[in-house]
Amino acid sequence: MTKFKNKIVLITGGAAGIGKLMANKILNLGASKMILWDINKENLDITSKELTGLGFDVFSFIVDVSNLEQIKQAAQKVKEEVGVPDILINNAGIVVGKYFHEHSHEDIDLSMSINTSALMHITLEFLNDIIKKGEGHIVNIASAAGMVSNPKMSVYCASKWAAIGWSDSLRLEMEQISKKIKVTTVTPYYISTGMFDGVKSPIIPIVKPETAANKIIKAIKKNRIFIRMPWLVYTMPFVKGILPVRWFDFIIGKGFGVYKSMSEFKGHQK
Questions:
Q1: Model-wide pTM > 0.90
Q2: Confidence category of residue 269, pLDDT binned at 50, 70, 90
Q3: Which pLDDT band, with edges at 50, 70 and 90, does 164 fall under?
Q4: 3-state secondary structure at position 226
Q5: Given strand 33-38, what is the order of strands in its sheet?
Q6: Does residue 267 sit within a domain?
Q7: CA distance 184 to 188
Q8: Number of domains in the chain
Q9: The CATH number of the domain where 183 resides is what?
Q10: Which are the catalytic amino acids?
Q11: Which one of 126, 225, 236, 246 is least enclosed by Cβ atoms within 10 Å?
Q12: What's the rounded Cα separation, in Å, for the pair 115 and 102?
């Protein structure tokens, strides 16, 4: 069982949304130090001020996780100024809600770098030090889109499929070399943060941020391998595996309306 008390925790994308919620909850569970990475300075300053005002020890770093040099520099600063994290939560992510032919090359590279490559680069910066400590926990926020294809999410789906494959492979590696390093992969359905503004889901319930944060924290404490939400997402791999493709398309696409869920997507509004 993973305990938060007296632990150093790092959360990427920690200035808003479920990242901010998790930071607050984890600090209230006794974490000694909270490290927040985010690209948004304004949100980062607000969140840091709120949490330090409550008496917590918070360290904030402005980091563009699509930039490898920034990741390396920030990781080095964290190790020098705060210490090696016991728990790393790779939460930062983006979505570009367009048909694939409407994407630019820059859209593709940015999505893959933030949603996939960044998780690996950030983890690599800390993993050997965590292994030396003898125990730790890596948490990777992927998506149910990493299991089910969806129109206007082709690149997002690709990035999350890759993230799931890497994350679970990392789990197996840590188990194989007998290290007490736990890995949890999170695959939620849409979460009602600004990231998915405009999404419509008539049958499958959109997850509330508070619910998502609570479930992720509970999963970390219990060393869960996968945490999926809502419960219907647990059936996706099985149903997809046993049904012919067209049947699956009909049930998920037309029956549950998933394939039209991004039709009115807006996302974060500047």
A1: yes
A2: low
A3: very high
A4: strand
A5: 58-62, 33-38, 8-12, 87-90, 135-141, 180-188, 226-229
A6: no
A7: 13
A8: 1
A9: 3.40.50.720
A10: 156
A11: 246
A12: 19
